[in-house]
Cation diffusion facilitator family transporter
Amino acid sequence: MSKEKGESTLTVVLAGAVNLAIAIMKAIAGIITGSGALLSEAAHSVADTITELLLLTALRRSSKPPDRVHPFGYGKERYFWSLLAAVSIFASGALFAFYQGFSTIFGEEHEQTSSIIGYAVLGLAFVLEAISWTQAHRQVRREAAEQKRSVLEYLKLVDDPAPKTVFLEDSAALVGLVLAFAGIALDHLTGSAVWDGLASIAIGVLLAVVAYILGRTNLRLLVGRQADPVLVRGVRDLLAAAPEIEVVVDLQTMLLGTDQVLVCARVDFDDALGAADVERACVRLADELSRTCGDVTEVFIEPVPRTDPALRAAVLARYGNPVT
């Protein structure tokens, strides 16, 4: 887990340094050329820089050990700070891009100057963003391959928002640079600032979509998403195979943080077992789950009768399948 955290930190730090440098270049070029698309891209890079700072805070805060006030640790702080990062992308980037776009289209006409500076800055920014994107893409592909999933499946189920956030924002940055280049070029060729304004609005839409995807992801993780389905099946299979257990009546899992899973299992033990046998079985099974399913950090096993009507109704309402 420390290796994965180290790579996430490298990905975030690299992206933050790149975005800060690019933001300064875009802002200067935007002022010189008078391009709204370039200024929108500068706001985009500022939003991305703020995002990296929030992600670094998330990585640091979420690694704090459990204590009396937070016995399950601080893992979910990573999701909170990552949610703020999504809000930052929308508030600092998308809204400014929308404002800049509509001001360019409906405000006073202006003539774009020194377009060559804009082209040069966008080209250099594309190279720098590509370096950051390559690091994020490398991490995402490696972790997806380790889980034997496609990149899209990995991004959907990942419990670490840092690489997903950097990957999506860097992808959006590359697309945004292309949009800004097209807006400046069309403005230069036609003499109409409408194209520059439309490019700014398109950048705003792009950032709003990315912010929505990241916000929705972190909201689900904060609310309490179940663990990876593959891990859940592994936990169920291990419990069902235990000689002391007749039926796994109910199984609930929740992500406590990145690589931290809470398992709550209600099982019907063999009625021939004594209390001491059940206690030893619970301790052994909890140890096996922690060793076999590496992300499982907390295990609670509750002995219950499979015929309890209230429990059967609760499981049926949650999953739609009756307990057998």
The mean pLDDT is 87.
